[in-house]
Design a protein that fits this description.
transmembrane, ten-stranded mixed beta sheet, membrane, alpha+beta, 23 strands, 465 residues
């Protein structure tokens, strides 16, 4: 925020009018923040807790791929409002992606009677079995991707009627992290190129097919990416620090369902099969081939992957966001009528600090439609499009899209603002109604936003070696 205001001040410093507008903008922001805080503290009953994951030890080039059960998590019949996370070291300092790259983390729910008797509870779809069945999950974009669920909506958990007798509701964390300190090729390591991991069999001991050049089959737990000759580095402790916000469940909360869409979904569901095979459902990852001189002229070296997916149930879209890897330039979800439901674009870093790592995706833009304005009907055929820069080859990329859908829309004005303001969330109406007279400030804000967008989303730059 301070950096943004400094940019505004430079743009406006040349005129008295500009200085007056800046004062008005600052007043607006101060009013909006103070009012938001008052509502959060007095009306919304929001609770928040920050937890640390179990420790995982990382050495140069090492890979952590493990599921941790019974993690710390809020209990009781509640409505989840957000889940935010970041990677930290033993001292609590943020760890940059160019040191420890978080390929992904997933958080999900299960019911346990004993450690040998776990019933996993997945999201509402669309993949087979437990594939992509998480409630929350992101990757390198974790720090700058909003996960807030606006009022009066929430993810219902802990409902006693849904917990089998004799069981407890618990949560798991699945992490996949790659330590890239001292590696020979950072981009190759985080894209899990098989030649850099020196593996010929997958995690289950099955031979890797010759045409499979990179992806999850080659960078499983306890593998190691190739280090630069002579590099020496020690091991260290890494944690996922996560903050959960929630409210107690009551009749005023409208539940949302979570859907995860995969651009690689074959649409087939083999009877009795819940795993991944070329013929069965979501493949999770795919490869992007480098463009040739011929097709480069046609599409500007953009790999476009599309898929049609059928929604089993309908409702109103409350939140949407895509998940892509380095090289991604955006993803769009279309309704059956061809209208855009959501376009989500990556934010690339351009610095050296955690949360702004040069060449890495550090955030994804999100969609928060006006509740009740975007509806998906049961059985509707959606089109998911995932776009990647194809100047170079990319292995193990993903094209996922997360949706929060409510079966009903609120029939009255919201009584509470969203949990946390974000660039993609509309500003609270009570603040804007008071400051409608500062149209000039809005114009300048649009100009600044355009400048930032060109700077952050304007193009893909390869990860530095």
């Amino acid at each position: 925020m301070i950096l943004l205001l400094e940019k505004w001040q430079k743009l406006l410093s040349s005129s008295v009018t500009g200085n007056m507008v800046l004062v008005l903008v600052l007043s607006m922001l101060a009013f909006d923040v103070s009012c938001t805080q008052a509502f959060l503290e007095n009306g919304n009953r929001i609770k928040s807790r920050t937890f640390l994951s179990p420790e995982f030890i990382m050495g140069p080039g090492s890979v952590e791929s493990k599921t941790y059960y019974d993690i710390d998590f809020p209990r009781g019949h509640i409505a989840l409002k957000s889940f935010n996370a970041e990677v930290v070291d033993q001292a609590g300092n943020p760890v940059p992606l160019f040191e420890t790259y978080f390929h992904h983390w997933l958080v999900g729910k299960y019911h346990e009677h004993s450690t040998s008797d776990r019933n996993f509870s997945r999201n509402s779809g669309l993949c087979q079995g437990q594939i992509l069945g998480q409630y929350f999950g992101l990757g390198s974009e974790t720090r700058k991707t909003a996960t807030d669920i606006p009022d009066p909506f929430g993810i219902e958990i802990g409902n006693p009627a849904e917990i089998p007798e004799g069981y407890q509701e618990k949560w798991y964390l699945d992490v996949h992290a790659i330590e890239t300190r001292g590696v020979e090729d950072r981009l190759g390591c985080i894209e899990c190129r098989c030649d850099l991991y020196n593996v010929t069999n997958d995690e289950d001991g099955n031979p890797i097919k010759p045409d499979y050049k990179g992806g999850l089959q080659c960078c499983y737990g306890e593998t190691r990416c190739k280090l630069s000759r002579g590099f020496q580095g020690g091991k260290r402790s890494i944690f996922l620090r996560y903050t959960v916000k929630w409210i107690d469940w009551d009749s005023s909360v409208i539940p949302v369902e979570i859907f995860t869409l995969d651009v690689t979904d074959t649409g087939k569901r083999l009877h009795g099969s819940t795993g991944i095979s070329p013929e069965n459902g979501c493949q999770i990852e795919y490869a992007v081939e480098s463009c040739t001189a011929t097709n480069a002229a046609g599409n500007g070296c953009v790999d476009i992957k599309r898929n049609n997916l059928t929604m089993p149930t309908g409702g109103y879209v409350i939140y949407a966001v895509a998940h892509q890897h380095v090289g991604g330039i955006g993803s769009t979800l279309y309704g059956q009528d061809g209208n855009i439901i959501c376009t989500s674009k990556p934010i690339y870093g351009n610095g050296n600090e955690a949360g702004n790592e040069d060449g890495y995706i550090v955030g994804m833009s999100t969609c928060y439609p006006e509740p009740g304005s975007v509806k998906i009907t049961a059985g509707e055929n959606l089109t998911l499009e995932s776009n990647y820069n194809s100047t170079n080859n990319h292995t193990g990329v993903m094209g996922l899209f997360y949706l929060h859908i409510a079966k009903q829309a609120p029939n009255m004005t919201f009584s509470h603002p969203p949990v946390q303001m974000h660039e993609s969330i509309k500003g609270t109406t009570y603040a804007w109604s008071i400051v409608v007279f500062i149209g000039l400030a809005v114009t300048i804000a649009v100009a600044v936003h355009s400048w930032l967008k060109k700077r952050r989303e304007g193009g893909y730059n390869p990860v530095p070696k």
